Amino acid sequence: MNDFFEEFVRAAPQVGEGLWITVLATVLGAAAALVVALALGLPSCSPRRSVRAPARLAVEFLRGTSLYVQLFWLFFALPVLGFRLEPLACGVLALGLNHGAYGAEVVRGAVGAVPHSQREAAIALGMGPWLRMRRIVLPQAVVLMIPPFGNLLIQLLKATPLLSLITISDLTFQLDQLRSATGDTSTAYLTLLLMYFALAALLSSGMKALESVAANRLGRSTNGGEA
Question: What average pLDDT does this structure show over 207-219?
Answer without folding.
Answer: 82
